[in-house]
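for the writeup, i need someone to sanity check this before i put it in the appendix. the sequnce is what the collaborator sent (i think, or maybe the updated version? ugh). structure was predicted straight from it, no edits. if anything looks off just tell me and ill rerun, i have time this weekend
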Amino acid sequence: MKSSKSKVSKKIYPVSLGCPKNKSDFEKLLYIFQQQGYEFTLNPEDAELLWVNTCAFIKPSIEEALEHIFELGSNKGKAQKLIVSGCLPARYGEPELKALLPEVDEFYGIESYRYFSKEEPVERVLTDNPFFAYLKISEGCNHRCSYCTIPKIRGPFRSKPMEQLLKEVENLLKIGVKEIILVGQDITSYGRDMNQRDALLRLLERISHLPYEFRIRLLYLHPLHIKEPFIENLLSIPKVVPYFDIPIQHAHPEILKRMKRGYSPEKVLSLISYIKRLNPSSSIRTSIIVGFPGEEEEEFSFLMEFLREAKFDYLGVFPFYPEEGTEAAAYQNQIPYRERQRRKREVLRQQKDITKVLLEGRIGQEEELLVLGEDLCGRPFGITKIQAPEIDGITYLKNRRNSLMPGDLIKVKIVKSGIYDLWAEPLALSG
């Protein structure tokens, strides 16, 4: 991008980094600017506003944000404005960032749409595939995990009003969204700050009764708040898919205690067993942290054995980062960076084999597929109920129907599996 070639107009060049919660907020901001007559461009030279919505949860996300800011800032034209929003300003504050990033013209914190609108919009500009959308049902977190920066960045837990969420969902369904994905730092706490019991289940039931063809997925279920009656009620709601994203972070009792997670490995295994007993086809995903301070070979071996016993369908793993301002950053017995990375690779190697075997066991089963598009070879692909978009595998269709369109929810039969992906044949269009 050269300033002499800049074609400045009422356009925004948007960059959104980080988690789906961050993305959901940014899409509402883009809607506000769209209503003000702005257009969006993939070419920064054409834009009046260069906007980077940042993540700052861990060190790599901060580095990624700074890389985008430096690149855009070093090439921006005189008439262009560079704006930074999201978690980076929320974590470090505007005065500190202004000294570090003089090329940035304006800073805004989380939920940046609040700086431009008195009311939270129920409309959004979807920035990914138009057939799935994230619904952020809460903000902040009341847990005080020793490694986590979220409470500092996003504040205490607070639920969004149910009526607001229902309006947002209906707007998404009207524009053709076929999968609503509930997200939040801890969605199992939804309603607790308002002294409402079973509020998440009531929200799901009301969403499920909306008269559209779609399905519902939940992400970020805190193990501490998952009880057997909740699982049973969840699986009874018609449009909720049998998919459980339960981030356990570790399994060794002492590491869990140092992390301040508040549950035992036995509790997690009991939950997994109960879910599989009620619905054997359920998919269970987790995320873990390796190389936490004090995780010696004994604790790491315990974790590996636990993962072999638990048999999660999909798993994400992160090396521990001693984040500034967190309790765990000051813990003794810090694990060297190279060893943390080695343990991450070892977990992924083991999980690859576990996932491969579990997917092989799904061959011959019937599934519901949300068609998302075609790959570069023209093969239709999508996600089944057991696959969350962007984080799990995908499913390819071996034989396509002429009438098949992106956004269709169709019945398929699984005929082949790979390490992470599936192949299926369509049975019949469901809509």
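Residues 1-6 have pLDDT under 50 and may be disordered. Residues 132-360 form a domain with the pyruvate-formate lyase- activating enzyme fold (CATH 3.80.30.20).
thx in advance!!
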